[in-house]
Amino acid sequence: FYNQEITSNMASKEEKKQIGTEEAAALAQKFVSVLSLSESVAQNASVNAKFRKVLLELIEEGGVGPGLEKHKGNLLYYMAGKYPANALPHRPTLVKYVLDDKIKGNNQLDGAFDYLKKVGGTAMDAKALEEAAGVGVVITPEQIKSAVASVLKENEARLREERYHLNCSIFLGQVTRSLKWAEGAAVRAELEAQVAAMLGPKTEEDMKPVEKKKAPKAPKAEAPAKAKEQAAAPTDGPPPPPEDPYAFFPKPDQNNQVQTTINFSDGSIMHVANTPEQLATHLKETGGKVMTRFPPEPNGYLHIGHAKAMFVDFGMAAQYGGNCYLRFDDTNPEAEKQEYIDHIMDIVTWMGWKPWKITYSSDYFQQLYELAVKLIKNGRAFVCHQTKDEIEECREKRLPSPWRNRPIEESLRLFEEMRRGLIDEGKATLRMKMDYKNENFNMFDLIAYRIKFKEHPHAGDKWCIYPSYDYTHCVVDSLENISHSLCTLEFESRRASYYWLLDSLDLYKPLVWEYSRLNITNTVMSKRKLNTLVMGRHVNGWDDPRLLTLAGLRRRGVSSAAINAFCRDMGITRNENVIPMHKLEYHVRAFMEATSPRALAVMRPLKLIITNLPESHYEEVEAKVLPGRSDAGYKVPFTRVVYIESTDFMEVDQKDFFGLAPGKSIMLRYAYPVTYKSHKKDSAGRVECVEVEADMGYASSGRKPPKGVLNWVAEPKPGQQPLQFEARIYDTLFKSEDPNVHEDWLSDINPESLVVLQGCYANPALASAKPGDCFQFERLGYFCMDPDTKPGHLVFNRTVTLKESVSKQVAAAKQGIAGKK
Predict the structure, then answer these.
(1) Active site annotation includes 527
(2) Catalytic residue among 297, 439, 693, 737
(3) Sheet arrangement for strand 291-294
(4) For position 811, what pLDDT does the model report?
(5) DSSP code at position 165
(6) What residues form DSSP beta bridges with 782?
(7) Is the pLDDT of residue 17 over 50?
């Protein structure tokens, strides 16, 4: 974390490539000749871009020429890998201590590192450094001899038993703990000498290899039957996520170690880190707690990528007993709407998160303005009159604004006129004086303020100048004492400008860390494209269940618990990848399997007439709410006329088909076996009715049931039509895994992404369901009642298919049903 570097040409591919073989060989030879490193160590150092750069800097800082003593070269090598990056100004001093033989071992360097981490880039006390590193402390041979003898005496019995087969290196740590500043080489030599004196010369027995003893196998315990079944079951789900997905983040009290190096076009370097005083103030004001923020712009609806951001921000604060702000980043009065603010608040609550405080960037407009004035006074900002096109042209040509060096007093006067509304919109901006020649475009004198004669939805009409995102975001992070400013990787190149501004204003600096976006196949998640889909009526609003907006997922029947579990499973990494849709569906299905009551329904009904029952027959059979896990049940009417799926009947039987066909019997779920007798067709040749006979004595007969078990719905009363509903069968919105690769990405919309089935039948119990209620329609999939439901017109959305093979899911998507059992 702490050796992060933001270079001026961060995006340059050349910086990321390994140097050529010849150049690497030349560097390796230099490390051998100058630092006296071994060839293998020197070769490894030469091919690691960051490490070799630091090693070369150390050589330059020390003015080291060929033939440096080997132990000093090894110490510089050790420094290159472990020196605290927040204390770079003091590194040449430590190099001198090494070259002057004041620091002689890694243990002394570690002591110096611990001290310098706390000091950071502030003034260093040489006396305190020397005390921390043991400089000048003399450990005599007699002290080493006494300490080694004491350790060997404690372990004499074991040593005499195992003799030279015992790895005596285990005693080194015991000695150095009592003699912190003793040289390792001297301790090792004394240890070897005393061991030899105690044991004498090695014997033939000592020279034999040690036989590895096999640990006795523990007796196998008889596993319960259920455990055996679970062990034998295939595990096609993802591995369990780590218990603490945030464990790799540093703690708030380590935030003085955060280091960002900004390389400027003139060759100068800015080392940015918190001072001990800034960190101490931050920790005092926060109580040392983790402080995060979820900062959406209120200009659109949240999607599943925002769910990951909430999991990172709210989740980390919750994990460590910290606090997370919900902060609306409302710097653009033309884009924000109360509709979006209300939606975001609703979704954050639905996702299970509770903000510590709800704030708006506009709450800080006065402080932001005052800090902008300070920036001008510090010579770090100026009022500019270039147009947007002129600024873009200068960016491309690396040219400065003609107003870049205008007098500070003039910029102060003009900025005040901007604030008072005396300058027309578009005629002036306040720009930060950063580095217009920098390869990183986010250091190119970014705009801090622009004029907009637009009333702000939250701040009202007080302001006609509004701060930009690049100016506001980092400053408000600092003002709210955020400990961890976490965002997605597309903001990585902004880290330089983030820290430049906070350093220029002498403000506390949060830890910035970027993680990969949540990209999922067969969808789009950019605000622009989502807006195109909604406004172009390619989908039915922001909560269309085909979209991965959180409103759409909720309407589809996806639970917030499933979404959070999915985000946890994906982890918090910097690895850019695209997640297959089935991984999201896995978690959705797992939660619905555990929580959704079962119900019987058919979506493409085919009439079955049970000929051996009278037309007036009526009885109720008991179906299970959660079969195999609960005895709870519900009553289902069973009459002479029942309906099954039309795909569960075939006129000609086939192998592996477990539905009804001539000469076959099937089991009606929770009811009776029925046997085919005949069928009838309509004028178009479609089967419209199948006649069967029911085995009404099956329950007490002991006869083996048929293999095929079908879902069904009966007439609730003889001659009465079953409860009808509309089924909306959703599939992926786009045909391609990555629709963004298509120039005409709208042409990739899947025409079968929504199939609407009318005239579906359900058991009467579903009449009391409410919008948002979820069910497993047995053999068909998981469904959720849609808000479009009205009295006399029920609507159910298929949330996800049952756990089936890919081929069956594809077939089911085309047919609009879950397929054959």
Answers:
(1) yes
(2) 297
(3) 291-294, 323-328, 357-360
(4) 41
(5) G
(6) 776, 800
(7) no
- Segment 225-242 shows an average pLDDT of 43
Question: Of 771, 819, 816, 815, whose CA–CA distance to 793 is shortest?
Answer: 771
DSSP assignment string, 367-406:
HHHHHHHHHHHTTSEEEE---HHHHHHHHHHT---TTTT-
CA distance 685 to 690: 14
DSSP characters over 200-214: -S--HHHHSPPPPPP
| Residue 444 near residue 434 (C-beta atoms within 8 A) | yes
Q: Tell me how far apart the alpha carbons of residues 417 and 432 are, in angstroms, rounded to a whole number.
A: 18
Residue 13 has pLDDT above 50, yes or no: no
Shortest CA distance to 30 belongs to which of 61, 71, 64?
A: 64
Could you give the angle at the alpha carbon of 264 between the alpha carbons of 263 and 269, nearest 5°? 50
Type of residue at 256: N
Please state the rounded mean pLDDT for residues 663-686: 95
- Structure tokens given for 240: 């369990």
Amino acid symbol at 237? G
CA dihedral defined by 459, 462, 466, 472, rounded to 10 degrees? -50
Provide the pLDDT for residue 215: 53
Q: How far apart are CA 668 and CA 688, in angstroms?
A: 19
Strands (E) in 28-159, as ranges, are none
Catalytic site includes residue 205 = no
Counting Cβ atoms within 10 Å, is residue 170 exposed (0-12), middle (13-18) or buried (19+)?
A: exposed
pTM of the model: 0.79
Paired residues of 18 in beta bridges = none
Highest mean pLDDT among 32-36, 222-226, 266-270: 32-36
118, 289, 404, 527: which one is catalytic?
Answer: 527
pLDDT of amino acid 471: 98
In contact, 317 and 292? CB cutoff 8 Å? yes
Report the C-alpha gap between 324 and 7 in whole angstroms.
Answer: 31
Distance, CA of 557 to CA of 769 (rounded, Å): 14
- pLDDT score of 562 more than 90: yes
